[in-house]
Amino acid sequence: MKEKLKELNGMTDDEVVIVLKVLEEPPILRKMGDKQLNVRVKLSTIDIHRTFCKQVLVDSGSSTSCISQNFVKENLIDTH
């Protein structure tokens, strides 16, 4: 618990707002059409610790990791 409080205290106001929004929303699995499953996730960058809450497509047949190039460009995410 102390580690979680320390993490919250180290966040910017914008990050805290995102966390609160996520906590307000119930975890929803949403089936779209016959073969598409979407779920809300929290994405965090490892370089400058930016956090994004997004709805993502679950693809159990995927053999690689992928992320939308537009999302990366719009949010200036370092991908090295």
User: Helix segment count?
Assistant: 3
Mean pLDDT: 77
Largest sheet: 3 strands, antiparallel
Distance between the termini: 33 Å
Overall shape: it is: globular
Number of strands: 3
Q: How many domains make up the coordinates? A: 1
Helix fraction? 25-40%
Low-pLDDT sequence parts: none
Share of residues in strands: 25-35%
Strand order of the largest sheet: 1-2-3
Oligomer: single chain
Q: State the order of secondary-structure elements, H for helix, E for strand.
A: HHEEEH
Q: Which value, in Å, is the CA radius of gyration?
A: 15 Å
Q: Helix/strand/pairing class, anyone?
A: alpha+beta
Topology summary:
Blueprint: H1 2-9, H2 13-24, E1 29-32, E2 36-44, E3 51-58, H3 69-74
